[in-house]
Amino acid sequence: MNRERAETFLRLLAEAELRDPALRRPPAFGSRDAPSVVMPATLPRAAWALTAVGALDLETAEAVLADAELALAARRHAPEAGVIGSAGPGRAAALAGSGRFASAWLPLRSGRPAPPGGASAPAGPRSGPDRYVPAGLMILFHDQTISGELDLMSYAHTAAGARLIAAWQTRDPLTSRRHGPPPVDEFTVTDDRGNRYDLLLDPKGRSHPTCDLTLRPDPPADIRWLEVTAPGEQAVRVDLEGRADADGLPPPVVIDRDLSAGEHLLNRIADRLLTMVPEFPPQLTPGPLANLAAGLGVTIAALEAAEVLSPHSPVPGQLAALCGSLGVRGHGITAAPAPDLPEPWLSMLSHYHRRKPGSAPAGDGFAAVAAALPELDGLRLVLLGLHHCDGDTWMNTLAFGQLPRNRPGTLHVETAFPLSVWVRDDTGRWHVARPASWSGEGGGEATLTLRLAPPLTGPSDWIEVRAAWQSAEVRATVPLRWGYRP
Fold this sequence. Notes:
elongated; 486 residues; 10 helices; Immunoglobulin-like; eleven-stranded antiparallel beta sheet; alpha+beta; eight-stranded antiparallel beta sheet; 28% strand
């Protein structure tokens, strides 16, 4: 990694952008401030890439961008007044030191990020290993105004407390209109020792309609079962001594990889391109895909200048071939399109382009999962349930490690979450799993939900999960215990 060359590249790029005649056009009426001036996408995206791989610190990148924006404002206004409008020296200092560019353009670096909310919180009084148990049970509930079901996917007990990971459906009996979350405060929860608990609904870090149901007070670590009873319904027993049936499935493995930081980042960008296809089909709305790919050529050049991407790397050519397959132009990648693409990419391209019969999204359903993946460079994922709702598939997890708060970058790539996660179902189709939301709980534990693209098209009996960083990849095949099949 060459940090000096990284900074030099960014400053030279800023000078080249400022010489573009198109940027000398007078600003629109009333826009005399530097904040109203918009730089070309290539500069902030190159800065984003260099900070994402740790080749450039955030303060230096902010200073280069602030200087470029102020210089652009000065050049646009100089013919009229010979001054920079209202952006005087005080304004320049405020722009350079306010950090406004950090929230707009530059995410936190993912190499060794800070924990959410500052220093790690001390662990609670609970001791012993964490506990994860699949559930796969449905609890019916109703009253005079609503009826519905609460689907229990798994049980987890960690230093942050005990919780049930659940999805719900609530409806008005007289209409098809959906309502809010179930009235869990009216449910009765007891364990095998006769202890009673309250359920606290916590939706943070979960996609609607899922949540964590925290048990209060914290139960003993070795309880054998819980009984959950909705008013007027039969009690449902959650067996906490059960385990997922993994007979015949291979054990998790960790495979060494030899990717540079630049190659890993480009693979993450490819993941994001592929997840955007169902949101913005290229044959209908090419704009969003083209906007995402704009500046990729300069991004690759910046990574090569910082010596975190080899000029002989095959990944830029693969990215160029992917853009060509998606009909995306204007990306600026100079590498020749690669003749071969990774198998997961080809699977998704085949799905999107051919749209074979039977590939329609599955119906609503949920599956119990409880699998702790091996640790990967200080980060560990625990899979705690999968559900399909309104045509989308979601995987509910916990993440352990030092994750900062979610702050997407310019290319909408969540560099705060450093893994590339893929899922293969039992039909051989691949799905990229993109972070949809997460919420830090202190102590290096976060609630994380991954969205699968494309969604599942049927009730798989198992899935293979691949979570990769640049130095290693975890591969785990886990069974799915369906509460009801989609």
